[in-house]
Amino acid sequence: MHEKKYKWYKIADALRELQFGENNILQIEVGGKKICVVKTLNGIAACAAKCPHAGGNMSEGFLDKNGNIVCPVHRYAFNFNNGRDVTGEGYYLKIYPVEIKEAGIFLGIEEGGLFSWLK
Ligand code: FES
């Protein structure tokens, strides 16, 4: 398997700049994609803002006690490690890597060029 290539976008200079909602979720737009940045039990994570089940807005969801993000519409919960729904229904929420560095907070989006799947 080939390593994924990411394009990294700076989303803030520092954590305090990220204005999380009461649900610890902040929706932003990066590289033309709507993304939720989430303050989890283990730090900062990011996922697609659109639920893979029926398009619910994950930014209006919440975190369960295990740190999974729960969609507000039908309450499917997704794990930040692999994006799978925790009840095993086979839904997959896109997860984006986040890196906190001295220079700021960066979010990675896979480079999906025309030839990326040929390599
Ligand atoms: S739309 Fe998200 S669980 Fe159904």
TrEMBL record:
PROSITE patterns found in the cross-reference section: RIESKE
Protein's recorded name: Rieske 2Fe-2S domain-containing protein
Keyword field: 2Fe-2S, Iron, Iron-sulfur, Metal-binding
Protein family membership: Belongs to the bacterial ring-hydroxylating dioxygenase ferredoxin component family.
Cofactor(s) required for function per UniProt: [2Fe-2S] cluster
Top-level taxonomic group: Bacteria
All copies of domain Rieske, residue ranges: 12-107
Lineage of the species this protein comes from: Bacteria, Pseudomonadati, Bacteroidota, Chitinophagia, Chitinophagales
One Pfam short name: Rieske
SUPFAM superfamilies tied to this protein: ISP domain
One MF term in the entry's GO annotations: 2 iron, 2 sulfur cluster binding
Record bears the keyword tRNA-binding: no
